[in-house]
Amino acid sequence: MFTRTAALRRAQRVAVRGFSTSSVAYESSVRAGVLLQRDPIVTQPAGKFEEATDRYFDWLQFISADRFPRDFFFKKGSTAESKWMDQEDIRAGEWFFDATSKPVVKSVKRVIHEDDMIEKSETSKPIVINSRETEADATGNEQSLERKLDRTLYLVVKGAQGEWTLPQGKVNDEELLHEAARRNLKEMCGGKMSVWMVGNGPVGHSKSGEASTFYIKGHILAGQAKANEELASEFKWITREEVEKTVSAEYWLAVKDMLSTI
Amino acid sequence: MLGTVSRHVAALRPGVSRGFSTGPALGYQARLSQYYHNTLRDDLMILQYVPPQVRARQEVMEEARLKAIKENVGGTPPNPLRKRLKVRPPKPRVAESAAHNTPYVDKVTVHIRCREALQNKHNLLSALMTLQVVTGQRAEVIKAKNDAAPWKLRKGMPIGAKVELTGDRMYEFLDKLVEVVLPRMKEYSGLPMDSGDGMGSFTLGFDNSAIGLFPEMEMVYDMFPMVFGFAVNIKTTAGHNPAGRLLLSGLNMPFVHARKPTTESFML
Amino acid sequence: MSGSLRAISTALSTSQRGGLLRATKATKEVKRTSSRTGGGSGAPGHEVSGTRYEMMKQILYVEEPRQLPQLSTEDVERHMTIMRAQKIFNMTASATRRAERLRKFESMKNAYEELAALDQRLFDGACQKEANATFPRQMRVPTETPPTKIWDYLTK
């Protein structure tokens, strides 16, 4: 008896949901997507103007600063001291004001004995600086997360119809937007990756026909996407400009405001 | 002053945008500042967004709460002043969600309380020099505001030193603190979740063993006759603690979680 | 630093040069205190630290900063032009950033409105906030040069 009433009630509830207001008619039309981004790994490159002004202000600070108390900071004859002396000499050679006003500067450098120099050249290892242009940049591999290190990259996938979009899918009953977004990302390209979602609310939406897709923002922290053949044939990590070239014009208008220019 | 130590001329390092440097020049943006503007700020905006209709609902509830408190609080009727004293002022209102009012770090103050300066004022030199070396900025002397007889302190006596940092220099100091000093501290697990002054500002206190962990101090540690503990006050524009905490955690400041937060990243 | 530069630029514009960084309030204050202590009560047992304190005093309060040279009118003009260009550059950069933030905010606001119109349940779910939200520790602050291992692919 009890189970029957429970079943009856459930049926009633479904019926109410089915026929009340217009919510159900729309419910199927809401879709959830993810705006998954890889954050910049290196700092922004300085432009020509920034580099020039930076150098000027740096120098200005240098010529007007307090005298550097060498005896306080360095032990006499230490490597750190000689490094500092090298830099000081180079800086003293620079002059941005009128050449006639340049004072005569005595080199701060002490005479270094020959055996000291040999010892130094043996011990000091040159520091190799990694290039900001990576292998992925050179080969044009758009699936790599190691490309365009100073930019924000976005994950786009090629859907079943051959259209490039942000990863997205249906919202099931009793599922909230962020849960659906997470599930869809997992189904579409859930390889092995660590993701952090920013809140539960949408950062933007797009419309196609009756359906509205709401996007939740996320950051990829580690791992890599893996396209699920049934839902997505391909994926790419691309910048804002490249998204514009990849997706359809209509879709671009819907998503462009969410994307960073840096 | 310290800026001259490890600063290269840009021409020395053609491959990199700027030579490594300990002090910011005007045309340069510290990396933490870049990170805040390019990545963190958008996330803060998203996490803090409250739609207008939800906010209106919250305000109605808050008003009702305040009204209830006001009516329940006693106080004899002929003495209205007493009644007013008993009502706790409402919490500061959180600013309406907008693109421009995401919280940011306004100012960082580093100060050293130097009680030893009462015996010998030369000790203050140590504190001033320490701050200058660590922050790269000239320190100010703090003077006593009041008399304090038990400590033989009179008004106007120098009692400490402080530095107020803003802009890139502030970001570079925070960066150093978070990336170098805190990880090297033994038994430091992070700020407790209940820290903060209620307005989104946070203070961290350190004993005198922490000052030697700053990379600038390592080289000259022996030159200081006296080392002090110090306090770092981080003033944010968050307006309430959770938002300030969110901002600082974004700048990599560690927090001790009582429970595992739901925003933790997950594996797919 | 920017303070000292500002001092320099004012000094350049008013043609007052020399002693720019000295004239801070803090300097004057401690000069007084240090002269007072220096006069008499040097506590015994402080000889060892005495030389180091002398050195600090020298660094902090006695040594004169480097003097800017006498600048020609062209130099001053050039400097002011650079300052102006810098200011314009910064203003443009922040205006661009602001515009971008504004369009992101509008996009988010519109999405919330649309969602509220379509489905109240999903809207309420989207408005839920975590009480103790913090950023994950794995988020990485950009560095000047790329790391040796650029990306962690979790291949273990």
From TrEMBL, chain A:
<feature type="domain" description="Large ribosomal subunit protein mL46 N-terminal">
    <location>
        <begin position="29"/>
        <end position="137"/>
    </location>
</feature>
<keyword id="KW-0687">Ribonucleoprotein</keyword>
<keyword id="KW-0809">Transit peptide</keyword>
<dbReference type="InterPro" id="IPR033650">
    <property type="entry name" value="Ribosomal_mL46_NUDIX"/>
</dbReference>
<protein>
    <recommendedName>
        <fullName>Large ribosomal subunit protein mL46</fullName>
    </recommendedName>
</protein>
<keyword id="KW-0496">Mitochondrion</keyword>
<dbReference type="GO" id="GO:0003735">
    <property type="term" value="F:structural constituent of ribosome"/>
</dbReference>
<keyword id="KW-0689">Ribosomal protein</keyword>
<dbReference type="InterPro" id="IPR040008">
    <property type="entry name" value="Ribosomal_mL46"/>
</dbReference>
<comment type="similarity">
    <text>Belongs to the mitochondrion-specific ribosomal protein mL46 family.</text>
</comment>
<dbReference type="Pfam" id="PF11788">
    <property type="entry name" value="MRP-L46"/>
</dbReference>
<dbReference type="InterPro" id="IPR015797">
    <property type="entry name" value="NUDIX_hydrolase-like_dom_sf"/>
</dbReference>
<dbReference type="GO" id="GO:0005762">
    <property type="term" value="C:mitochondrial large ribosomal subunit"/>
</dbReference>
<dbReference type="InterPro" id="IPR021757">
    <property type="entry name" value="Ribosomal_mL46_N"/>
</dbReference>
Automatic annotation (TrEMBL), chain B:
<dbReference type="GO" id="GO:0006412">
    <property type="term" value="P:translation"/>
</dbReference>
<dbReference type="InterPro" id="IPR002132">
    <property type="entry name" value="Ribosomal_uL5"/>
</dbReference>
<dbReference type="GO" id="GO:0003735">
    <property type="term" value="F:structural constituent of ribosome"/>
</dbReference>
<keyword id="KW-0687">Ribonucleoprotein</keyword>
<feature type="domain" description="Large ribosomal subunit protein uL5 C-terminal">
    <location>
        <begin position="158"/>
        <end position="255"/>
    </location>
</feature>
<dbReference type="InterPro" id="IPR031310">
    <property type="entry name" value="Ribosomal_uL5_N"/>
</dbReference>
<feature type="compositionally biased region" description="Basic residues">
    <location>
        <begin position="81"/>
        <end position="91"/>
    </location>
</feature>
<feature type="domain" description="Large ribosomal subunit protein uL5 N-terminal">
    <location>
        <begin position="100"/>
        <end position="154"/>
    </location>
</feature>
<feature type="region of interest" description="Disordered">
    <location>
        <begin position="71"/>
        <end position="96"/>
    </location>
</feature>
<dbReference type="Pfam" id="PF00281">
    <property type="entry name" value="Ribosomal_L5"/>
</dbReference>
<keyword id="KW-0689">Ribosomal protein</keyword>
<dbReference type="GO" id="GO:0005840">
    <property type="term" value="C:ribosome"/>
</dbReference>
<dbReference type="Pfam" id="PF00673">
    <property type="entry name" value="Ribosomal_L5_C"/>
</dbReference>
<dbReference type="InterPro" id="IPR031309">
    <property type="entry name" value="Ribosomal_uL5_C"/>
</dbReference>
<protein>
    <recommendedName>
        <fullName>Large ribosomal subunit protein uL5m</fullName>
    </recommendedName>
</protein>
TrEMBL record, chain C:
<dbReference type="Pfam" id="PF09812">
    <property type="entry name" value="MRP-L28"/>
</dbReference>
<dbReference type="GO" id="GO:0003735">
    <property type="term" value="F:structural constituent of ribosome"/>
</dbReference>
<dbReference type="GO" id="GO:1990904">
    <property type="term" value="C:ribonucleoprotein complex"/>
</dbReference>
<dbReference type="InterPro" id="IPR019192">
    <property type="entry name" value="Ribosomal_mL40"/>
</dbReference>
<dbReference type="GO" id="GO:0005840">
    <property type="term" value="C:ribosome"/>
</dbReference>
<protein>
    <recommendedName>
        <fullName>Large ribosomal subunit protein mL40</fullName>
    </recommendedName>
</protein>
<comment type="similarity">
    <text>Belongs to the mitochondrion-specific ribosomal protein mL40 family.</text>
</comment>
<feature type="region of interest" description="Disordered">
    <location>
        <begin position="16"/>
        <end position="49"/>
    </location>
</feature>
<keyword id="KW-0689">Ribosomal protein</keyword>
<keyword id="KW-0496">Mitochondrion</keyword>
<keyword id="KW-0687">Ribonucleoprotein</keyword>
<dbReference type="GO" id="GO:0032543">
    <property type="term" value="P:mitochondrial translation"/>
</dbReference>
<dbReference type="GO" id="GO:0005739">
    <property type="term" value="C:mitochondrion"/>
</dbReference>
<dbReference type="InterPro" id="IPR042831">
    <property type="entry name" value="Ribosomal_mL40_fung"/>
</dbReference>
<keyword id="KW-0809">Transit peptide</keyword>
